[in-house]
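Lab meeting minutes (informal)
Scribe: AK
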Amino acid sequence: MDVTTIGSVIALVGVLSGSVVAYLGKRGENATARMNSTMDQIQEERDGLRKELAERDTRITALLEQRVTDQVEIARLRVKVIEMGGDP
């Protein structure tokens, strides 16, 4: 083989290896973009679930307060029934 052929083979190997690197780099870039998109969706869902959980906790607290109020009212009415001579 002469020097020109060896130079051509080396250039060909360089071009092929550059193409492989570019291809793999683009695949990695696409994978990273896809992962970032998925993470964004997960974070949005998490934020929505946190909001729903906070609303649920607020509703539970309100219902518990209403239950206590109702129990106090029931006790007051029982006392009133007893005072009036009835049987609760």
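Next up, CB showed the second protein from the same session:
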Amino acid sequence: MEIVIRDDAAAVHALAADIVERCVVAGDHLGGPVLGLATGSTPLGVYRELGRRHREEGLSFARARAFLLDEYVGLPTAHPQSYRSVIRDEFAALVDIDPTAIDGPDGEAEDVPAESARYDRAIAEAGGIDVQLLGIGTDGHIGFNEPGSSLVSRTRVKTLTEQTRRDSARFFDSAEDVPHHVMTQGLGTIGEARHLVLLALGAGKADAVAAAVEGPVSAFCPASVIQLHPRVTVVIDEAAAAGLQLADYYRYAAAHKPSWQGW
């Protein structure tokens, strides 16, 4: 695992965009890149930077496929806070990806177990995800795998904690409008991606980041499962790094990273 501490949000977003760009360029020669897209506020700056690179530098997503981490259950697809809508507006509209190449869990599916199985199968049939972007909740969740989630779980429905619903309320008219349930990739599903890139910004994420990176691997902090993955890059700002005991070492290691190693 590599922990990279940057000065501010812009630097965090730029490094994450670098990782995605390398994946996209390399994937163009290998049948097309497969991206895992997260929502929430933190990844939006990455998508805007990728949009700028497409617009100004010609970075193309024409051969890319993408899979969403999660979706609210029961929220109409056309709702502005459905994750399909968010990714459409905040990513697909900024680049040249084929909208039909973006898949996500169907939160309106009548047969939820069948839809969950379909989604995991679709990811596998695409050859798996090359780079999976992740945020982290204040309670340590990734995707919407809340504390107590099985570390080998698959795509399924989860009930949101009240803390998560409060954290998400800023995207809705009120906290009461936040759905209680989501369909999310499981921790086992997420762990099958070849490269995990976890982003965090701000002091409010410091405790969760410390638990995920330096705490025990435990269902109490679902994000701690990243410690078991062979390739993880954690990109955070100084405020989110405030709880890390080994922060100085992480800065030293990043500064002395061998030139032949990429992110």
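CB comment: The radius of gyration is 17 Å.
No objections, moving on.
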